[in-house]
Amino acid sequence: MYEKLLENCTLCPRECKVNRLEGMRGYCGMDSRIRAARAALHMWEEPCISGKKGSGAVFFSGCGLRCCFCQNRDIAIGDSGKEITVQRLADIFLELEQKGAANLNLVTGAHYVPQIISALEIARRKGLMLPVVYNSSGYENVETLRLLEGYVDVYLPDMKYANEKLAAAFSHAEDYPQKARAAIAEMVRQTGPCQFVEDGYIRRGTIVRHLILPGHTRNSLAVLKELHETYGNDIFISVMNQYTPVFKQEKYQELNRKVTRREYEKVLDGAIALGIENGYFQDGETAKESFIPAFDYEGV
Protein backbone atom coordinates (compact mmCIF):
# COMPACT_ATOMS: atom_id res chain seq x y z
CA MET A 1 0.00 0.00 0.00
CA TYR A 2 2.95 2.31 0.65
CA GLU A 3 5.06 1.13 -2.31
CA LYS A 4 4.12 4.29 -4.25
CA LEU A 5 6.48 6.16 -1.90
CA LEU A 6 9.33 4.57 -3.86
CA GLU A 7 8.27 6.51 -6.94
CA ASN A 8 9.79 9.74 -5.59
CA CYS A 9 11.79 8.36 -2.71
CA THR A 10 12.25 10.48 0.41
CA LEU A 11 12.20 7.63 2.92
CA CYS A 12 15.54 8.62 4.48
CA PRO A 13 17.06 12.07 5.16
CA ARG A 14 19.03 11.98 1.89
CA GLU A 15 15.70 12.55 0.11
CA CYS A 16 17.08 11.53 -3.28
CA LYS A 17 13.62 11.71 -4.94
CA VAL A 18 14.55 9.02 -7.46
CA ASN A 19 11.98 6.66 -8.95
CA ARG A 20 13.07 3.36 -7.45
CA LEU A 21 10.06 1.62 -9.00
CA GLU A 22 11.68 2.19 -12.39
CA GLY A 23 15.02 0.77 -11.27
CA MET A 24 16.72 4.00 -10.22
CA ARG A 25 18.96 3.85 -7.15
CA GLY A 26 19.32 6.50 -4.51
CA TYR A 27 22.10 7.09 -1.98
CA CYS A 28 21.17 3.81 -0.30
CA GLY A 29 22.24 1.99 -3.47
CA MET A 30 18.97 0.08 -3.77
CA ASP A 31 16.08 0.15 -6.20
CA SER A 32 12.63 -1.20 -5.29
CA ARG A 33 13.74 -4.84 -5.16
CA ILE A 34 14.36 -6.16 -1.65
CA ARG A 35 17.83 -7.52 -1.03
CA ALA A 36 18.91 -9.23 2.17
CA ALA A 37 22.21 -10.85 3.14
CA ARG A 38 21.28 -12.89 6.20
CA ALA A 39 18.27 -14.00 8.26
CA ALA A 40 19.21 -16.01 11.32
CA LEU A 41 19.22 -16.17 15.10
CA HIS A 42 21.63 -13.50 16.32
CA MET A 43 23.20 -13.84 19.77
CA TRP A 44 25.18 -10.60 19.97
CA GLU A 45 22.55 -7.98 20.64
CA GLU A 46 21.82 -6.55 24.09
CA PRO A 47 20.82 -9.22 26.67
CA CYS A 48 17.17 -8.11 26.67
CA ILE A 49 17.02 -8.60 22.87
CA SER A 50 19.12 -11.70 22.18
CA GLY A 51 18.94 -13.42 25.56
CA LYS A 52 19.36 -17.20 25.36
CA LYS A 53 16.97 -17.65 22.44
CA GLY A 54 18.61 -15.28 19.98
CA SER A 55 17.11 -12.42 18.03
CA GLY A 56 15.65 -13.16 14.60
CA ALA A 57 17.83 -10.73 12.67
CA VAL A 58 17.19 -9.87 9.03
CA PHE A 59 20.13 -7.94 7.56
CA PHE A 60 18.99 -5.80 4.64
CA SER A 61 21.36 -4.64 1.91
CA GLY A 62 22.00 -0.96 1.31
CA CYS A 63 22.19 1.98 3.70
CA GLY A 64 21.32 5.64 3.59
CA LEU A 65 24.20 6.63 5.87
CA ARG A 66 27.32 4.63 4.89
CA CYS A 67 29.84 5.58 7.58
CA CYS A 68 33.46 5.39 6.45
CA PHE A 69 34.23 2.93 9.29
CA CYS A 70 31.20 0.65 8.77
CA GLN A 71 31.79 -2.93 9.94
CA ASN A 72 29.04 -4.18 7.63
CA ARG A 73 30.40 -2.38 4.59
CA ASP A 74 29.75 -5.22 2.13
CA ILE A 75 26.02 -5.06 2.68
CA ALA A 76 25.88 -1.30 3.33
CA ILE A 77 27.14 -0.53 -0.16
CA GLY A 78 24.95 -3.26 -1.66
CA ASP A 79 27.70 -5.68 -2.75
CA SER A 80 26.10 -8.50 -0.77
CA GLY A 81 22.46 -9.45 -0.81
CA LYS A 82 20.01 -11.85 -2.39
CA GLU A 83 16.93 -10.49 -4.13
CA ILE A 84 13.69 -11.58 -2.47
CA THR A 85 9.98 -10.78 -2.83
CA VAL A 86 7.68 -9.29 -0.20
CA GLN A 87 6.05 -12.72 0.11
CA ARG A 88 9.43 -14.35 0.72
CA LEU A 89 10.26 -11.71 3.34
CA ALA A 90 7.00 -12.53 5.15
CA ASP A 91 7.91 -16.23 5.04
CA ILE A 92 11.36 -15.43 6.48
CA PHE A 93 9.69 -13.66 9.40
CA LEU A 94 7.57 -16.74 10.10
CA GLU A 95 10.56 -19.09 9.72
CA LEU A 96 12.53 -17.11 12.31
CA GLU A 97 9.60 -17.41 14.70
CA GLN A 98 9.51 -21.18 14.12
CA LYS A 99 13.24 -21.34 14.92
CA GLY A 100 12.50 -19.94 18.37
CA ALA A 101 13.57 -16.31 17.91
CA ALA A 102 12.78 -14.02 20.82
CA ASN A 103 11.84 -11.23 18.43
CA LEU A 104 12.07 -10.09 14.83
CA ASN A 105 15.05 -7.78 14.33
CA LEU A 106 14.99 -5.61 11.19
CA VAL A 107 18.54 -4.38 10.59
CA THR A 108 18.96 -1.21 8.49
CA GLY A 109 15.57 -1.32 6.83
CA ALA A 110 14.72 2.38 6.39
CA HIS A 111 14.86 2.23 2.59
CA TYR A 112 12.54 -0.80 2.60
CA VAL A 113 9.87 0.44 5.02
CA PRO A 114 6.97 0.11 2.52
CA GLN A 115 7.93 -3.49 1.69
CA ILE A 116 8.56 -4.32 5.36
CA ILE A 117 5.07 -3.11 6.29
CA SER A 118 3.54 -5.24 3.54
CA ALA A 119 5.52 -8.30 4.64
CA LEU A 120 4.55 -7.80 8.30
CA GLU A 121 0.89 -7.57 7.35
CA ILE A 122 1.14 -10.85 5.40
CA ALA A 123 3.02 -12.58 8.21
CA ARG A 124 0.62 -11.37 10.89
CA ARG A 125 -2.33 -12.68 8.91
CA LYS A 126 -0.53 -16.04 8.99
CA GLY A 127 -0.05 -15.89 12.76
CA LEU A 128 3.21 -13.99 13.41
CA MET A 129 3.28 -13.04 17.10
CA LEU A 130 6.89 -11.91 17.60
CA PRO A 131 7.63 -8.41 18.85
CA VAL A 132 9.34 -6.36 16.13
CA VAL A 133 12.67 -4.60 16.71
CA TYR A 134 13.67 -1.81 14.31
CA ASN A 135 17.48 -1.71 14.32
CA SER A 136 18.61 1.62 12.90
CA SER A 137 21.56 3.93 12.32
CA GLY A 138 19.44 6.72 13.81
CA TYR A 139 19.56 8.59 10.51
CA GLU A 140 15.84 8.52 9.84
CA ASN A 141 13.03 10.71 8.59
CA VAL A 142 10.29 11.20 11.17
CA GLU A 143 7.63 10.88 8.45
CA THR A 144 8.91 7.39 7.60
CA LEU A 145 8.99 6.35 11.25
CA ARG A 146 5.37 7.38 11.64
CA LEU A 147 4.43 4.79 9.02
CA LEU A 148 5.83 2.14 11.36
CA GLU A 149 3.61 3.02 14.31
CA GLY A 150 1.69 -0.10 15.25
CA TYR A 151 4.18 -2.34 13.46
CA VAL A 152 7.30 -1.80 15.60
CA ASP A 153 7.45 -2.64 19.32
CA VAL A 154 11.08 -1.86 20.09
CA TYR A 155 13.32 0.75 18.51
CA LEU A 156 17.08 0.16 18.57
CA PRO A 157 18.66 3.26 17.03
CA ASP A 158 22.23 4.55 17.15
CA MET A 159 23.10 8.03 18.31
CA LYS A 160 26.50 8.24 16.70
CA TYR A 161 27.34 11.93 16.90
CA ALA A 162 26.52 15.03 18.86
CA ASN A 163 29.13 16.82 16.76
CA GLU A 164 28.06 17.95 13.27
CA LYS A 165 31.65 18.15 12.02
CA LEU A 166 32.30 14.52 12.95
CA ALA A 167 29.04 13.49 11.29
CA ALA A 168 30.06 15.29 8.10
CA ALA A 169 33.57 13.82 8.13
CA PHE A 170 32.76 10.19 8.93
CA SER A 171 29.26 9.79 7.49
CA HIS A 172 28.90 12.63 4.96
CA ALA A 173 25.83 13.72 6.93
CA GLU A 174 26.28 17.04 8.70
CA ASP A 175 22.60 16.93 9.63
CA TYR A 176 22.96 13.58 11.44
CA PRO A 177 22.67 14.98 15.00
CA GLN A 178 19.56 16.96 14.10
CA LYS A 179 17.90 14.05 12.27
CA ALA A 180 18.80 11.49 14.95
CA ARG A 181 17.44 13.71 17.73
CA ALA A 182 14.11 14.08 15.94
CA ALA A 183 14.00 10.37 15.07
CA ILE A 184 14.68 9.21 18.62
CA ALA A 185 12.04 11.61 19.95
CA GLU A 186 9.51 10.02 17.58
CA MET A 187 10.58 6.53 18.55
CA VAL A 188 10.14 7.27 22.25
CA ARG A 189 6.76 8.88 21.56
CA GLN A 190 5.60 5.69 19.88
CA THR A 191 6.90 3.21 22.44
CA GLY A 192 6.87 5.09 25.74
CA PRO A 193 9.18 3.95 28.58
CA CYS A 194 10.82 0.52 28.28
CA GLN A 195 8.69 -2.45 29.33
CA PHE A 196 10.05 -5.94 30.00
CA VAL A 197 8.45 -9.35 30.36
CA GLU A 198 9.18 -11.89 33.09
CA ASP A 199 11.97 -13.68 31.23
CA GLY A 200 13.92 -10.42 30.91
CA TYR A 201 13.21 -9.67 27.26
CA ILE A 202 12.16 -6.17 26.28
CA ARG A 203 8.58 -6.05 25.03
CA ARG A 204 8.31 -2.38 24.22
CA GLY A 205 10.52 0.69 24.35
CA THR A 206 13.61 2.37 22.92
CA ILE A 207 17.24 1.41 23.47
CA VAL A 208 19.72 3.92 22.07
CA ARG A 209 23.16 2.64 21.14
CA HIS A 210 26.36 4.65 21.05
CA LEU A 211 29.59 3.32 19.55
CA ILE A 212 32.70 4.91 21.02
CA LEU A 213 35.11 5.95 18.29
CA PRO A 214 38.87 5.99 18.93
CA GLY A 215 40.09 9.47 19.69
CA HIS A 216 36.61 10.90 20.15
CA THR A 217 35.56 10.39 23.76
CA ARG A 218 34.39 14.01 23.93
CA ASN A 219 31.75 13.21 21.32
CA SER A 220 30.69 10.14 23.31
CA LEU A 221 30.30 12.07 26.53
CA ALA A 222 28.25 14.74 24.75
CA VAL A 223 25.93 12.10 23.29
CA LEU A 224 25.39 10.43 26.66
CA LYS A 225 24.76 13.74 28.38
CA GLU A 226 22.17 14.79 25.82
CA LEU A 227 20.35 11.46 25.89
CA HIS A 228 20.21 11.28 29.67
CA GLU A 229 19.14 14.89 30.12
CA THR A 230 16.41 14.47 27.50
CA TYR A 231 14.97 11.07 28.39
CA GLY A 232 16.26 10.09 31.83
CA ASN A 233 15.19 6.53 32.65
CA ASP A 234 12.54 6.32 29.92
CA ILE A 235 15.14 4.81 27.56
CA PHE A 236 18.05 2.43 27.96
CA ILE A 237 21.45 3.51 26.68
CA SER A 238 23.85 0.92 25.29
CA VAL A 239 27.50 2.01 25.27
CA MET A 240 29.62 -0.08 22.89
CA ASN A 241 33.39 -0.50 22.76
CA GLN A 242 33.32 -2.93 19.82
CA TYR A 243 34.71 -0.54 17.20
CA THR A 244 36.75 -2.68 14.80
CA PRO A 245 39.03 -1.18 12.12
CA VAL A 246 38.20 -3.49 9.22
CA PHE A 247 40.00 -1.55 6.50
CA LYS A 248 42.65 1.16 6.51
CA GLN A 249 41.61 4.80 6.70
CA GLU A 250 43.88 7.13 4.78
CA LYS A 251 42.27 10.41 5.83
CA TYR A 252 41.25 9.69 9.43
CA GLN A 253 44.23 7.92 10.94
CA GLU A 254 42.73 7.69 14.43
CA LEU A 255 40.15 5.22 13.08
CA ASN A 256 42.87 2.67 12.28
CA ARG A 257 42.99 1.39 15.87
CA LYS A 258 40.63 0.02 18.49
CA VAL A 259 39.27 2.00 21.41
CA THR A 260 41.74 1.86 24.30
CA ARG A 261 40.76 0.66 27.75
CA ARG A 262 41.47 4.15 29.07
CA GLU A 263 39.09 5.69 26.53
CA TYR A 264 36.37 3.21 27.37
CA GLU A 265 36.74 3.73 31.11
CA LYS A 266 36.61 7.49 30.63
CA VAL A 267 33.25 7.19 28.89
CA LEU A 268 31.91 4.74 31.50
CA ASP A 269 33.03 7.02 34.33
CA GLY A 270 31.25 9.86 32.55
CA ALA A 271 28.06 7.80 32.27
CA ILE A 272 28.15 7.02 35.98
CA ALA A 273 28.81 10.68 36.84
CA LEU A 274 25.78 11.68 34.75
CA GLY A 275 23.63 9.31 36.79
CA ILE A 276 22.74 6.92 33.97
CA GLU A 277 21.07 3.89 35.57
CA ASN A 278 19.34 2.17 32.66
CA GLY A 279 22.21 1.09 30.49
CA TYR A 280 24.31 -1.65 28.99
CA PHE A 281 28.10 -1.68 28.85
CA GLN A 282 30.19 -4.18 26.90
CA ASP A 283 32.69 -6.25 28.81
CA GLY A 284 35.57 -8.35 27.52
CA GLU A 285 37.05 -8.58 24.01
CA THR A 286 34.27 -7.37 21.74
CA ALA A 287 36.36 -5.47 19.20
CA LYS A 288 37.19 -8.30 16.86
CA GLU A 289 36.04 -9.33 13.43
CA SER A 290 34.45 -12.57 14.68
CA PHE A 291 31.58 -10.45 16.01
CA ILE A 292 30.74 -9.33 12.47
CA PRO A 293 28.11 -11.70 11.03
CA ALA A 294 28.83 -13.81 7.99
CA PHE A 295 26.72 -12.37 5.19
CA ASP A 296 26.38 -15.72 3.47
CA TYR A 297 22.64 -15.54 2.68
CA GLU A 298 21.76 -17.93 5.50
CA GLY A 299 17.99 -18.05 5.92
CA VAL A 300 17.34 -15.85 2.88
TrEMBL record:
Residues 59-220 form the Radical SAM core domain. Belongs to the organic radical-activating enzymes family. PANTHER family: FORMATE LYASE ACTIVATING ENZYME, PUTATIVE (AFU_ORTHOLOGUE AFUA_2G15630)-RELATED. It comes from Blautia segnis. This is Radical SAM protein. The keyword Cell membrane does not apply. It comes from the Bacteria. The keyword Iron-sulfur applies.
